[in-house]
Each structure stands twice: as structure tokens, then as C-alpha cells.
Specification:
Radius of gyration: 50 Å
Number of helices: 16
Distance between the termini: 50 Å
Number of strands: 13
Shape: elongated
CATH class of the largest domain: Alpha Beta
CATH architecture of the largest domain: 2-Layer Sandwich
Bound molecules: phenylalanine
Order of helices and strands: EHHHHEEHHEHHEEHHHEHEEHEEEHEHH
Helix content: 25-40%
Number of domains: 2
Mean pLDDT: 90
Strand order of the largest sheet: 5-8-9-13-12-11-10
Strand content: 15-25%
């Protein structure tokens, strides 16, 4: 729109001392003006002069005034000897202040510079002309080439906006995976690649029998209290369980068996039939283990035993030979919701998700469980784990699993595990040499640790921000 040329000039400007001269006249003029005329009054001594106009002015001024022939000595003092003076220094400075230079030329300028009355500065100025596209209004550059522009031919003269290759695109809209679902998917994949089959866990409501009794949890155990477990009011009671199995479970609780002394405490059918919201997915594991043992009990299962294998088919008939006791090894997992009557706080909710697994095989040892845990957790990215002896009514020995968290710089509990007790396995019908180890962990805890979330309510419940979830790096694939 416009064209311009840049010009560089050297300009002169008065210094602070120069400004002083512009106000009061040059040093020499000031000396001349305070002196008396020759033969008219007392000559002024240099000392008096210094007092009157200052050391600097009198020193510089005297020299110049003498040189100009303005003043002369008379005895010890000084007098002026001309009627009128031309203050050239002042005139020159005025010209410099006004024009930035002097007609008199560089020699005089150099002299003023030497006297530190002016300094030289570099300046820049521009000459500006209308350019070929000069206009007093701005046209919006085109961003699109339209059919209209092609038809009218206006595309030929239009100006176009430059394409910005640095621009970021508009975020695409679409669904987002909740961090919990994402971690669930990752854990599910770990199980699947290790050859586990997924257990059906859709029954949130269980009976006390499957949640506790089948697991050899005594009926007097505090976990069964109202403060810890949500019981149903309608319906209150479950259908009766398989009578033979039921009989074996109640026997082992009350009187022992299978090498156990039992609890020798009263057993109530009513307690066992109470309906509740399952407190752990081990209730589902109990169902599945009972089902797995069906072939050992000699009951040809009507259910498809395929659910115990991941992909590959397995025999659906009972024991095939005299040596075959019907047992088939199994690796099962589940990831689903459980409910506990907890006081809710930043890390506890009344419902959460459990990751659970069981491995059933002959002659498994505690070393198998520990070794398995190391592999499983390393697949989750957790390398440093430690075990602590613990107590569960249904496992012996039991181990709590701790993982070292580098960001928190401490060991955090990540799970609970153990070898299921014979009091639980044998009434189901498993042969004596079959061992089952199992473990459980919360899904929320590793998710919170992984994504640096310290309040569970940012992850679950009505305070979860949908925008936060959608924009969280956790949901990206
Ligand atoms: N049910 C246990 C819990 O809720 C976890 C567990 C499962 C422990 C299986 C041992 C064996 O913490």
C-alpha cells in the first residue's frame, strides 16, 4: 500500500551544559557581562569572579574572553574593554538546537563537541509515498475459492489469505473412554494374553451363602455386620442352595472335616439365605469354582464347560477313565463392581471395582502364587512388589501385596491374595491335591495412582467433570 525510503542522518543536540549556555549565554559572555568597564569602577579579581559566577564558568569564560579581545587585566583585577559583544557560541548553539547542524560547518561543530556543549546522534527518517495498491480501506483476503468467484472471474484479482500450516485443527468431537474403563481394558488384556477366561459377574445381588459361607467366612465374622454389608429388604431371602453342597458347607463350619476342626459355632440357615450386595467378587469366583468342580463331583455338568477355557474347547463330559477324577485346571478372572457400607471419604466409596483372579491346578504352591503376582504386576508396569503375611478367612496362607510407588516414594498396598483353604475347596468336590490361589485388587487405586488423581470423587460419581474426562490425556488411545 505504501512505499518508503529510509534516510540516515547524523544530528547534533545540545548537552546539559549546552542547555545551560542556551539559557544564560556562553561562559565568556557571562564573564564579560559581570566585569566593569575599564576606568569605570573597581576591577574584579579572579577570586571575586569565581565567587560571582562559579569556578568552571570563570575558568573557561576568562580564557575565551581574553582570546576574543573582550577583557583585559588592570592591576590585580579584570575589566571589559569592548562596548558590545557577539556571543557566537550562543548563536551557534541556538542554530544547532534548531536545525541539528551548523552552516558554519564541521570545524565549528567539532569545536563545540570538544567543549562538550553538543553531542552527535544518529537519526533515521523516512520518505513515504503511496504504493501501487494504495487504498484508504482494507479488503478482507479470501480464504476460500468459491464457485461464484470462478463464474464471475473475480478469482483473478482477489487477494488470498496465506495458508497457515502451523494452525492446529479443531478438536474432533466423539466419545471418550473413562479412565476406569481404560485401565479395566488394559488389565483385561493382560489376563487374556496370559490365557485367562472371564467369569460372568452380572449378579450384584448374592446370598450370604455364596458371599461368605461357601468361602468359609464364619457367620460371626464382622464383615457380615450391617455396618459393613448392605442387606436387601425386598426380597430378603435367597432360594435354597443345592442341599447336598449346603449340607457339606454347614457341616464344615459347625463341626469341621477335611482335616479341619471347623468353627464349632452355631450356624443359621437364615443368615446364609440373607440377600445382600456382594462385598467382593470372590462370591462370583466361588460360584465358578463350584461349577468347575462339578465334573469331580461326578455330576455331568449341563452347563457348557467352555467358560473355563479361553477360546479353546474342552471336554464337556464327566471323568473319561478310572484314573481321571474329572478335574481340569482353570485360570479365571473378573473385573466388576462390589459394594461395602463404608464411610465415604477422598479414597473410599460405597461401591468400587475389584479385579479378581483365580488359578486352579494340582499341587500349586505359594511360590506359584508369588511368581504369578510378579509377572502379572510387571505387565501392569509395576516391577517392585513386596508381600506381607495377612489373614483372610478363606485363604491360608494369605498375602497382602505392596508395590513401590516411585512418585509417592513409598510402598502402597495394591492387593490381597492367598491359597484357598481346603474347608472351602473340598466341600465343593475338588480332589485333595487341587490347589487354588486367588487374589483381588481395586481397579480405582491403580487408576488414581496412574493418573495422579487424589480424590476418588473426581473419578467416580456425580462430581465427575465430563469435560475433564474428555480432555484428559488418560482417555486418548
Ligand atoms: N476377596 C479379597 C478382597 O476383597 C481378595 C482376595 C481374593 C483375596 C481371592 C484372596 C483370594 O480383598
Amino acid at each position: 500500500m505504501i512505499q518508503y525510503q529510509t534516510h540516515e542522518v547524523l544530528s547534533h543536540f545540545p548537552t546539559a551544559e549546552g542547555v545551560q549556555v542556551l539559557q544564560d549565554g556562553s561562559h565568556e559572555a557571562r564573564v564579560w557581562s559581570v566585569l566593569p568597564f575599564k576606568n569605570q569602577g573597581n576591577p574584579i579579581t579572579p577570586a571575586e569572579l569565581r565567587k560571582k559566577i562559579g569556578d568552571e564558568t570563570s575558568k573557561v569564560g576568562q580564557g575565551r574572553a581574553f582570546k576574543n579581545g573582550w577583557i583585559a587585566k588592570e592591576g590585580d583585577g579584570l575589566v571589559k574593554i569592548v562596548e558590545q559583544i557577539q556571543d557566537t557560541t550562543l548563536n551557534d548553539l541556538q542554530e544547532v538546537a534548531l536545525t541539528g547542524t551548523l552552516k558554519a560547518g564541521e570545524k565549528v561543530l567539532a569545536d563545540l563537541r570538544k567543549r562538550k556543549l553538543i553531542i552527535q546522534k544518529k537519526g533515521q527518517w523516512f520518505t513515504i509515498h503511496k504504493g501501487p495498491q494504495f487504498s484508504t480501506s482494507t479488503a478482507r483476503p479470501e480464504t476460500d475459492l468459491t464457485a461464484d468467484m470462478l463464474v464471475s472471474g473475480s478469482w483473478k484479482t482477489a487477494t488470498y489469505k496465506k495458508y497457515n500450516f502451523e494452525a492446529e485443527g479443531i478438536p474432533t468431537t466423539g466419545g471418550a473412554l473413562h479412565p476406569l474403563l481404560k485401565v479395566r481394558e488394559e488389565i483385561r488384556n493382560i489376563f487374556l494374553e496370559m490365557g485367562f477366561a472371564e467369569m460372568p459377574t452380572s449378579s450384584f445381588v448374592e446370598s450370604g451363602f455364596w458371599c461368605f459361607d461357601a468361602l468359609f467366612v464364619p457367620q460371626q465374622h464382622p464383615a457380615r455386620d450391617l455396618q459393613d454389608t448392605f442387606y436387601l429388604s425386598d426380597p430378603k431371602e435367597s432360594l435354597p442352595p443345592n442341599p447336598k453342597y449346603y449340607e457339606r458347607v454347614s457341616q464344615v463350619h459347625e463341626h469341621g472335616g477335611y482335616g479341619s476342626a471347623g468353627y464349632r459355632a452355631p450356624w443359621s440357615q437364615e443368615e446364609s439365605r440373607k440377600l445382600l450386595l456382594r462385598t467382593h467378587t470372590t462370591a462370583s469366583s466361588a460360584h465358578m469354582l463350584y461349577k468347575l468342580a462339578a465334573r469331580c463331583r461326578g455330576e455331568v455338568p449341563e452347563e457348557d464347560q467352555k467358560e473355563f477355557t479361553h477360546g479353546a474347547s474342552s471336554t464337556t463330559s464327566g471323568p473319561s477313565s478310572k484314573d481321571d477324577d474329572g478335574f481340569r485346571p482353570a485360570k479365571l478372572f473378573s473385573i466388576d463392581r462390589v459394594f461395602r457400607n463404608e464411610t465415604m471419604d477422598a479414597t473410599h466409596l460405597a461401591e468400587f471395582h475389584q479385579v479378581e483372579g483365580v488359578v486352579a491346578d494340582r499341587n500349586l504352591t505359594l511360590a506359584d502364587l508369588i511368581g504369578f503376582m510378579r509377572v502379572f504386576f510387571s505387565k501392569m508396569g509395576i516391577e517392585k512388589i513386596r508381600f506381607k503375611p495377612a489373614y483372610n478367612p478363606y485363604t491360608e496362607p494369605s498375602l497382602e501385596i505392596f508395590a513401590f510407588h516411585p512418585m509417592l516414594d513409598r510402598w502402597v498396598e495394591v492387593g490381597n491374595s492367598g491359597m484357598f483353604r481346603p474347608e472351602m475347596l473340598e466341600p465343593m468336590g475338588f480332589p485333595k491335591d487341587v490347589r487354588v490361589h486367588g487374589w483381588g485388587l481395586s481397579l480405582e487405586r491403580p487408576t488414581m495412582i496412574r493418573y495422579g488423581i487424589n480424590n476418588i470423587r473426581t473419578l467416580v460419581g456425580h462430581k465427575v467433570s465430563i469435560d475433564g474426562i474428555e480432555s484428559s490425556p488418560a482417555v486418548m488411545f
